[in-house]
Write a structure and sequence with these properties.
It contains eight helices and two strands; from the N terminus they run αββααααααα. Helix 1 packs across helix 3 and helix 2 crosses helix 8 (about 205-215). About 25% of the residues are buried. The protein has about 220 residues and is mainly α. It has a single domain, classed as Arp2/3 complex 21 kDa subunit ARPC3 (Orthogonal Bundle). The protein is globular.
């Protein structure tokens, strides 16, 4: 089995699988909220951000080695996977409940019941953010003539994650008629965005490792 990893095509498929699995998992577990203290500042966040961390270095590694087109294909595959899974979940929720079921209807719905608004927010935010990330990454690579991978990785991630956070929060939670106006949404945004930007910086050495692994040491990565 491990012989397969000598093939660059297999390594690409492996990283694309990690990307898709991470995106899908983030949506499935995102309902749990955790709280940590960062420099004595309490930060509340969805644990869905944990698998999203994996998508940072995977997408940048694929973009660096195979170009923007392959990165876009990876993003669209993740979108199609999410749509398919959401469709299956909606069908599962709609099917009649049997008393022989191992879980009650309320238990099943509490775990898998997602509002249509949250689904739309997730899909739109992910699509806008990651396509922008891939585009910015490629443009900076052209400007820097393939140098400073750390710069294009962090800048593209900063921009992409800012778009993702603002788009998701406003689509999912903005409702001035119920008191959830701009101020309320911004209060939700800043902790998430701060944590994502920190994770993006931590992500930098993983991008270099991912690029080196994909290339198989066939080409030196320029700092």
């Amino acid at each position: 089995m491990f012989e397969k990893f000598k093939s660059i095509e297999f390594r690409l498929a492996f990283l694309m699988s990690i990307f898709i699995i991470s995106v899908v998992t983030a949506n499935m577990i995102g309902g749990k909220i955790a709280e940590i203290n960062l420099l004595s500042i309490p930060i509340t966040f969805s644990i869905g951000i944990i698998p999203i961390f994996l998508t940072f270095f995977v997408l940048d590694s694929i973009n660096e080695v195979f170009g923007q087109q392959k990165a876009r294909e990876t993003i669209w595959l993740a979108i199609f996977a999410q749509i398919l899974i959401f469709g299956i979940l909606l069908l599962s929720l709609a099917l009649p409940y049997s008393s022989r079921s191992w879980v009650s209807q309320n238990e099943f719905e509490s775990v898998f019941g997602l509002s249509l608004r949250m689904i739309i927010a997730s899909l739109v935010a992910f699509l806008l953010a990651d396509l922008t990330d891939a585009f910015v990454f490629s443009k900076i690579r052209e400007k820097t003539k393939g140098k400073m991978l750390w710069l294009r990785s962090n800048l593209s991630n900063f921009i992409g994650e800012t778009i993702d956070t603002f788009a998701f929060m406003f689509i999912a939670f903005f409702d001035p008629f119920s008191g959830h106006g701009v101020g309320f949404v911004l209060q939700l945004i800043w902790p998430y965005l701060t944590l994502k930007l920190i994770l993006s910086i931590i992500n930098t050495p993983f991008v270099y490792a991912g690029v080196k692994w994909l290339r198989g040491n066939s080409k030196k990565t320029t700092f």
